[in-house]
Predict the structure of Xylosidase/arabinosidase.
Amino acid sequence: MSASLLAVLLLATGGEAAERVDASTLTGRTLCGYQGWFRCPDDPAGRGWRHWSRDRDRLSPRSLTVEMWPETGEYPVTYPAPGFEHPNGEPARLFSCADESAVDLHFQWMREHGLDGVFAQRFLVELNDPSQDLVLKHVRTAAERHGRIYAVCYDLTGAPPGEIYDRLTADWRRQVNVEGLTADRQYLKHRGRPVVFLWGLYPERFDAALTHRLLDFFQEDGPYAATVVGGVQWQWRTVEDPGWAAAFRRLDVISPWNVGNMSVDAEGVRWAATGSWKQDLEAATAAGADFLPVIYPGFSWTNLKGPAAAADALPRRGGAVFRRQFEDAAALGLTGAYVAMFDEVDEATAIFKTSPDPPTAAPFLPADGPPDRYLKLTAEGARLLRRTDRPPGE
């Protein structure tokens, strides 16, 4: 039987559905954080150079806020980046997540490499920005088209504490009642409920009572009930405040933010710190929660924060930093992870395709290998956690 005929028969008999990631559980899933926050002048959002530059009206080496340059050759729509050229003299270009085609390409890469899907960031402080709804719409469409799973991650950073509860719960009600978000077949469920990620549950940002109110809302039976993943500080187990200690242990899934958390070996080499994971897993299990480790490929934010921030960098070292975290998670019997992040070139944590030959006008980190190296490494890590060596499509 020819390959083309087999493909036709598979589609005719539901083979397409077999390629879809099962959205009924978080167990065995490795999801990437998806910022979706990049904008360009003349895109549908009209937000200027958002997240490429600290000056929305101008992109320059001094205003630049990213460490890595995306590989843009496959994007159907790109925008010229004035003043930036690749080493071969080719004018550099950038993409915008306000374009459906850009988000679709990202999900195409996920499907091609066997990645499960994303936690789509939704920034509470910017819910009045229409382009947030636009990007979420693109995510929904692309997840359906490519059979990937997704869930909303509310990022609480910068939101006034007194407004968090009302803003968040009103938006979730709208997503459920008006947008029908949780009815999507690719919207992630876990423990029988839709998943919602609350990122930024940090004691220094607001009091524990607010977190308890949010948990009361989501954990009450009814149309807005959800399984709550909590993005917490890595010291969550040892907080002394009894209200916060109780709040952390009410979460359904505990996911301590680990980006920038490093250890140093006997030779003085930096690695992502994973030494707390065993106790984190034990404490989460004792509380009746699942544990979702955060795994990241490396870290740098010199263009974002300034030259002094170079001391904070964690070099990727050809994927060794990334691989070791997956190996440590697998050794604990964990079956899934949260990869930070799919697209965050701001802090050099992106695993999507980045340029091996970035523009020369500013200091960029190269791709550390072929453009798709970290897509492949993420897929390999996910298979390791699932205890399978099968690549996508086999």
Remarks:
- The first strand starts at residue 30 and ends at 34.
- Residues 172 and 178 are 10 Å apart (CA to CA).
- Confidence is low (pLDDT under 50) at residues 1-18.
